[in-house]
Design goal:
single chain; 290 residues; TIM Barrel; 40% helix
Amino acid sequence: MNRRDAIKNSLLASGLWIGSDVKDTHLFWTKPILKKKIRHAVCQWTYSFMSIDELCEFSKDIGIEAIDLVKPEDWPTVQKHGLDVSMCSGAEIGLTKGWNDKQYHATLIDNYLKYMPLMAEAGYTNLICFSGNRGNISDETGLNNCVEGLSKILPLAKKLNIVLHMEILNSKVDHKDYMCDHVLWGVELCKRLNSDNFKLLFDIYHVQVMEGDIIRKIKEYAQYFGHYHTAGVPGRNELDKHQELYYPAIMDTIVQSGFTGYVAQEFIPKFKDIEARKQSLRDAIYLCDV
């Protein structure tokens, strides 16, 4: 599929096509008025083929309110464009080395205690963290280790009004051996910590790959979810007809749960052409705007 056909097909599918042909230098599309029930964000790393300036400018133009997974060096650029940072990153030491392993506690505690005051000064409240891989650690020991380590930084998080979010990742396809790979494990950690300053990052793609039953899980455990990520299943690409999730129903469930945080697009665009990739993000925002 060439660039022109890809864009035209995308516009047709989204109901935004109003022209008779797609030119190489112009897109003819209508910008709908967003309903504001979903607070839209996009993960920086999935659109890293654009500069942070370009991503912010484009995001603002299509109704996105925030950039996700942004490190401190890029905060000033995001602020310059009047956008929020919906999830801060950079305090962690990787996906595989996390709070479930006590050998990393000293480094993680130091990192997070130094990082959170920077967030508070910038006015940001969401910070990502990871369980780490299992290795030879049992799930129960991993839970206990996470509680022990996170309990040492949660008092500062509470003082600064910061919420730590542990992301649920699948260990079946993308992150082999990752411990926080099931909703119930993460929910149990939330219960043991018993803190409003600790939530789960519900990655819809990862949960679907690992265990499915997305809508029921959101309805049953919504109180433990502080942030959402999206992507198509399988493939982690666009939220289009070639994947198995019906995102309007999922987004409606999130709205009905009373959620007021951000939903961040984290799909990897499959098109090579930049304009087609940008159209993919437009389509995802409008699809999820229930």
